[in-house]
């Protein structure tokens, strides 16, 4: 028998051997502290923190998608002022690291601790102190979602631009307003292009939630794992625990994304029935169509 | 003739479309140069000409899909796309332009049906969203219109499941659903396989028989000869020749018209 891909098989065997070696080695290393991994994997503090991470992800994504849609539509608006607002937003939020943004949001109450009513530099009538200190969870969601909105805006924009210009024209010719055209014609058709990268964004967001440490918010999965290890002085098993939870969630999301993509790629290249089967087609004999 | 006089013309005598020295340029390229023509009520006006002659652009100017740079275009006595105050023109707000377009139906070369809606939903869409018609009434009306274009049994089909000819017939029904007073056809059969052209022309002929005013940009000279009441030949953005289709096609006066017709007939 002749092997078809001898190179591939050799590489695969070597890789498998390396993995086996790594696993055997890891099992013996005390630093990994496997019994502790088992102990903390289903620790209630960890599972509760996992829930908070999920909440951060869901809230930030939902707000990010809605805001992103608004920004994308603004970016495509014929009004130059509206367009500029969207552009500046994207410029700032895509142009600075999300970690830095989160630190800023964490300090927001320090920056804006009062509202000054008056004419700037000239006269102050009143200063209203802001006593409200928003919960850190709230600040985290604000920071993550405002950043996400900038990325979602680009995804949505690509989706909207993927819709044939003739569609907008046809809607316009029917007397539909710009808003009606967007809502009824363009947005529904753009979903096919928007959904797959949005799935990626959800997965990405799940992992980005670890950055809320910058706020500093620490009740999320990674934050909690870090806090626990700070008490027990064994960071490595908790790192593994957190990683396993993240892997678990991203795996579920990847499966979901697969099915969503399959669903939304449907309807393209749908077979059209043969023309001969059309019982309604008028029978043309000769006809003016023939003279050309 | 000034606009003031035009406004006092009685309804029936007023032309449906009147272009007065309409010019249009894209960048430095002048596509329409001082086009003047009239389409009377109930008339079928055929616009012919080589590609790039500006005939589609002119059609799109009539419902303000393209903005006219100079000259005036009136539909049913109403200035298209602009408001006249004193001797100055102000472009209409998008909402006002949309209101003007409601009464003007348009059929495109590539149909431009909404692919995410069934044939029936395509037709019912504008009456419900634009005119506020109840969904039930709009669907009922849509069924009537589908029957009128011979597609009663295709109500639930998506555009991708229809042949080109069927799609174009749905597109005509969709335009008719808004009860337009004027129908614009932008090369409605050019994208069709030859054997599907006839069914679309049949629907258009029936529509013309009902007295609908139509402006048809077309290469179907047979249709133009049989159905058209008037014809203009456009070349290089100017009206080279106009007249009754039979006359113009049989006996072109201008060299350019002769040259063009010798190629297409």
TrEMBL record, chain A:
Keywords: Amino-acid transport, Cell membrane, Membrane, Transmembrane, Transmembrane helix, Transport. Pfam families: BPD_transp_1. It is found in: Cell membrane. Residues 50-257 form the ABC transmembrane type-1 domain. InterPro entries: AA_ABC_transptr_permease_3TM, ArtM/GltK/GlnP/TcyL/YhdX-like, MetI-like, MetI-like_sf. It comes from the Bacteria. It is a multi-pass membrane protein. Coiled coil: none annotated. The chain crosses the membrane at residues 50-73, 102-122, 236-260. Belongs to the binding-protein-dependent transport system permease family. NCBIfam families: HEQRo_perm_3TM. This is ABC transporter permease. It comes from Pseudolysinimonas kribbensis.
Automatic annotation (TrEMBL), chain B:
The keyword Transmembrane does not apply. Pfam families: ABC_tran. SUPFAM superfamilies: P-loop containing nucleoside triphosphate hydrolases. The keyword Nucleotide-binding applies. One of its GO terms (molecular function) is ATP binding. PROSITE patterns: ABC_TRANSPORTER_1, ABC_TRANSPORTER_2. Keywords: ATP-binding, Nucleotide-binding, Transport. Residues 17-261 form the ABC transporter domain. It comes from the Bacteria. This is ATP-binding protein. It comes from Pseudolysinimonas kribbensis.
